[in-house]
Design goal:
Elements (H helix, E strand, L loop, with lengths): L5 E6 L3 E6 L6 E4 L28 E2 L2 E2 L5 H11 L13 E6 L3 H15 L3 E6 H8 L5 E6 L4 E7 L2 E2 L5 E3 L3 H15 L5 H12 L1 H10 L7 H10 L1 E4 L2 E4 L3 H4 L17 H11 L5 H5 L2 E4 L8 H12 L7 E3 L6 H14 L1
Parallel strand pairs: 1-6, 6-7, 8-14, 14-15
Antiparallel strand pairs: 1-2, 2-3, 4-5, 8-9, 9-10, 9-11, 12-13
Helix pairs in contact: 3-12, 4-5, 4-6, 9-11
């Protein structure tokens, strides 16, 4: 009897990644969208999300909030991978769900999915634990910078310290929103002949995503800021103009959400609070494995900034910060690696 196929679903706070274990990469769908508001001020941070398109799922920060409504969600996924939903109850398919949730909710997801869809087997795991396990480590602090929320998860000897987990309402979306806003403001400081280009760019979602993923940079030394500002330009067709301070100011919201009027703490402050809250015997081992992952961890200089700020807060702790490759798909690829190991 052959090994039953395993479908892996990563419930991110902004995107769903899913596919079979033997797929080279996951399929990706936006997990939510904001309804367009034509009366919104284009310079508003909220207005940036008005052009986002995708399926509306019963998800909140990577957690299924209504399991009874999850069947339509999975039907969309099944259609994307070319399998009829009605066929699943007649197969030996296994389902693995990876979510940002507490253990009780994850267990509830499994029970509800087994009841609704009659899967052969449903297992669920926490995204941060899966990522750490794939690195062959049992202890560390996983900083998962997602689309709309970031989670700082301390894991000690393979167990998530649930009461020490910290979250922040910051993520990759807010960097995009800040970038859009900054470019719109730049239109007011340049000659009229260039202003239209900046205004148009601030509303171009594809261009904003390109700039965020390829040109934004984390910096905290004046010399680095000046170098970035003088070198980074946006080129599209005949358009060629500098992006200025926007390319390093936008990622600053990860460290200081107050810049866009979010009252949550910055990510290094959250890691520091986690280290302050754990037992003193755990601190050295946790501090040596601070792992940055998620789609919001793509910015050059992020690891160095984290290390410098945390060293300043804990000068007597051995501090190591690691930025993972391919962070957007990392949970999915980690799940695939672990599933393959399980079936060997």
């Amino acid at each position: 009897m052959g090994i039953p196929p395993t479908l892996i679903i990563d419930l991110g706070s902004g995107y769903l990644k899913f596919g079979y274990v033997n797929h080279s990469s996951p399929k990706v769908l936006p997990a939510c969208y904001a309804a367009p508001d034509e009366e919104s001020d284009p310079s508003s941070l909220v207005a940036f999300d008005s052009g986002r398109r995708g399926w509306v799922f019963p998800l909140e920060n990577g957690t299924i909030t209504d399991c009874k409504r999850v069947a339509p969600l999975l039907e969309i996924i099944f259609d994307e991978i070319g399998m009829k939903a009605s066929h699943f109850g007649k197969t030996d398919l296994e389902l693995q769900v990876f979510a940002s949730s507490d253990v009780e909710k994850v267990d509830g997801i499994c029970e509800d999915l087994e009841e609704i869809l009659k899967f052969r087997n449903v297992t669920a795991s926490l995204q941060q634990v899966t990522t750490l396990m794939d690195l062959d480590r049992a202890t560390g602090i996983v900083v998962d910078i997602g689309y709309s929320v970031s989670i700082v998860a301390p894991i000690f000897q393979g167990f998530l310290l649930h009461d020490k987990v910290m979250t922040s309402a910051t993520g990759a979306f807010f960097v995009s929103a800040a970038l859009s806003h900054l470019l719109f403001l730049m239109a007011e400081t340049v000659p009229k002949s260039e202003a239209m280009s900046y205004e148009s760019l601030s509303k171009n979602l594809d261009a904003i995503e390109f700039i965020k993923r390829n040109l934004c940079h984390v910096a905290f030394k004046p010399a680095e800021k000046e170098k970035i500002m003088s070198e980074v330009r946006f080129q599209q067709g005949e358009i060629d103009f500098p992006l200025g301070e926007s390319v390093w100011q936008a990622p600053e919201i990860l460290f200081d959400p107050a810049l866009i009027d979010i009252s949550d703490k910055g990510l290094t402050d959250l890691v520091a609070e986690v280290l302050q809250r754990v037992d003193v015997s755990m601190k050295p081992e946790l501090a040596q494995n601070v792992i940055l992952t998620g789609g919001g961890s793509i910015f050059p200089g992020l690891g160095e900034r984290f290390h410098a700020e945390l060293r300043g807060k804990f000068p007597n702790l051995p501090m190591n910060v690691h930025v993972l490759d391919n962070p957007f798909e990392r949970v999915w690829t980690s799940a695939v690696n672990l599933a393959r190991m399980r079936t060997q």
